[in-house]
Amino acid sequence: MHIGIDQLEFYAPSTYLDLTELADARQVDPNKYLIGIGQSQQAVIPVTQDVVTMAANAASRVINDENRNKIAMVLFGTESGIDHSKSAAMYLKRLLQLPDNIRAIELKQACYGATAGVQFARDYVALHPEQQVLVVGSDIARYGLKTPGEVTQGGGAVAMTISAEPALLNLDDVSTFRSEDIMDFWRPLYRTEALVDGRYSENVYIDFFKAVWANYQSQTNRHIRDFEAFAFHLPFTKMGLKALRAVLPEASEQQQSQLMTNFEASRVYNRLVGNLYTGSLYLSLRSLFDQATLKPGQRIGLFSYGSGAEGEFYSGTISDKFDVEASKAWFDHYFANRTQVDVATYERLFKQQLPNHDVLLDTRQDDARFVLAGIKHDQRQYVDRE
Ligand code: CAA
User: Fold this and answer.
1) Cα separation of the two ends of the chain
2) Domain covering 3-384: architecture
């Protein structure tokens, strides 16, 4: 029996910032952002979207009448949750009208949460092949105005169903992981913006990748030649390029160029959206599926990294049922219909945080199906506009 990713959909708000304009405003050479960081645009998140609404907007496209009653768990990866106690999965479960006989929980380990969800889901489906698990990664990446991390902000959500005989990716059995208690990136409870030791975080990311990749090779006897492509957690797309370059010398010249071509395919969407923390690896995987030319049976390697830190390498092969046309059309439409905001508007939206008292938000500018309409009695008011 194969187990793996059956569906993989994405949502981010329709407002975005062009990073050439940000570079001009910050008096930085635009090529630092476009080439040095590898980002062209970033999603700007309005106050009417949070991790729950973004997850609902993505997940409503993977839940349908056929699979609604098969969903046994909702595993919600996030590092920008909205409550210290109640899980974002519980709100999501209600918004999606999922049945009550399910488990709904939140998973936190920086950008690694959704990968934990995928792995737990795989194990669950192995025991219960007739059921499915909804795995979500939803985040808003905030470092602060005029900080070095500003150019690596963004936000959005991915939603996946993990099932037997999946339509996208059959997961291989072996995955290798590593954890170490370090301070490369963190966000104390009292802060809305992350703290980061930028260069150190990049170095640890690469060290973790090399360690889990070496461990994976020795456990499986697989070599880089067994891989058609790699998908990386992309906090910014140059990060994935640095990781790929760390292993490229293991490949033949011909394969190096094929891995580079597929890497370019894997960063098309991320370059335009920015960091979505838990969802970034899976947006990159979606980008690879849609923008590369892949065939059933080809093997993809996935590297997940969550600061603090947890890293995991795992792999899967393209399913026989693989078809990407609908997803491509969705992304074409999404990118063609976004609204660019100028730097002043982005700064205003960035500062517009929810107050800690009752408020009614103006949702008229927000074209999403699920929106946050305000706070009443310390409870977020979510609306499904369909
Ligand atoms: N043309 C082309 N390239 C240029 C350039 C120009 N005019 N000017 C500079 N560059 C290049 C630099 O040479 C550098 O390249 P390398 O990284 O290959 O050396 C690159 O642009 C960035 O320049 P700096 O190192 O000077 O950039 P910076 O000090 O402003 O900060 C950063 C970069 C550390 C990534 C910062 O944006 C940051 O802290 N980001 C957030 C942290 C992060 O994303 N870490 C990633 C690992 S942690 C993780 O993955 C979890 C997560 O999601 C947070």
Assistant:
1) 37
2) 3-Layer(aba) Sandwich (3.40)
User: Which atom belonging to ligand 1 lies closest to the Cα atom of 306?
Assistant: 51
* Residue closest by Cα to atom 13 of ligand 1: 36
Whether ipTM exceeds 0.90: yes
Q: How far is CA 242 from CA 3, 238, 308, 337, 355, in A?
A: 30, 6, 20, 32, 40
**Active-site annotation holds for 250:** no
Query: Which residue out of 9, 150, 233, 310 is catalytically annotated?
Result: 233
The verdict on whether 310 is a catalytic residue reads: no
323 among annotated binding-site residues: no
CA nearest ligand 1 atom 38, residue: 149
32 is in an annotated binding site: no
Name residue, tokens 């991915």: 158
Quote the strand ranges of the chain, DSSP E: 3-11, 15-18, 41-43, 71-77, 103-107, 132-141, 154-164, 169-179, 185-186, 195-196, 229-232, 299-306, 310-318, 339-341, 359-360, 370-376, 379-384
Whole-prediction pTM value? Answer: 0.98
Known active-site residue 111: yes
Q: Please indicate if the annotation marks 124 as binding a ligand.
A: no
Per-residue pLDDT 10s for the chain (386 aa) are 999 999 999 999 999 999 999 999 999 999 999 999 999 999 999 999 999 999 999 999 999 999 999 999 999 999 999 999 999 999 999 999 999 999 999 999 999 999 999 999 999 999 999 999 999 999 999 999 999 999 999 999 999 999 999 999 999 999 999 999 999 999 999 999 999 999 999 999 999 999 999 999 999 999 999 999 999 999 999 999 999 999 999 999 999 999 999 999 999 999 999 999 999 999 999 999 999 999 999 999 999 999 999 999 999 999 999 999 999 999 999 999 999 999 999 999 999 999 999 999 999 999 999 999 999 999 999 999 99
Q: Is 239 in the pocket of ligand 1 (CB under 6 A)?
A: yes
Each domain of the chain, given as residue ranges in start order, spans 3-384
